[in-house]
Amino acid sequence: MTGQPFDSPVPPGTGWPGDPATRGTPVALTAVDVARLAADAATVHEVDAMSSVCRACPRLVAWRESVATGNRRASFAHQPYWGRPGPSFGDPTASRLIVGLAPAANGTNRTGRMFTGDRSGDWLYAALHRTGYASQPTSVAAGDGMTLTGVRVVASVRCAPPENRPTPAELATCGHWLDRDLALTAASPAGLESILALGGVGWNAALAAARRLGWAVPRPKPMFGHGAEEHLGLPDGGAVRLLGCYHVSPHNTSTRRLTEQMLDATLRRL
Ligand code: SF4
User: Fold this and answer.
1) What pLDDT was estimated at residue 78?
2) pTM
3) Is the domain 86-268 a CATH 3.40.50.740 member?
């Protein structure tokens, strides 16, 4: 896409399209580091930059880099792999967030952009284009010119996990980045109007972040469901709508558990 060679994983600040980090971006090595650096981030761009070089979860760092260097899917074997955490993607002034699960090993972990280069992303970006949020219907590579307006896509866990299953400890550690994304968005001039949670993991991650931030979360804990809607109370008296949507996973879309119509209808409520 860029015509220039890259190492795998891609070193920060070497020209990969959309790379938010530089060679000098501080690197978190522990959960304590993540909490400290996330709290220090003054903008969502800083969250993107620091999370994109994070190394706080040893199991996930080892997995993402092993896929990037030695276990690439055969059809992508000739390509460089991002091999780093997936930073959030979209409009930095957005008042709407989409919270997914985690990067795919040969999707975001290859391309460096959320939901880019895999079948889940094909579904999500086509729907975002149909509903007016995305500039184009396909998302194949970080340098393809895609832009989002009014919405940003974030992950519950920013590194590709084996079998798409992060551990509770990994979710808790990465939750510090999510907390800061939510807090900064809520404090922005546009505010945080709504969150679309893709699947139960995204739903639970959004609720856990809201609780950690001191927002009012209904009790008992609201259950995830497609089309579910809850209101999270902000300290200033405002509220954030939380919407549930089945994940755009190949399993859900190939079985028609989630259809284009269902996804579009949920995005139109965002
Ligand atoms: S999962 Fe999150 S906290 Fe863990 S290494 Fe990746 S970016 Fe850092």
Assistant:
1) 85
2) 0.96
3) no
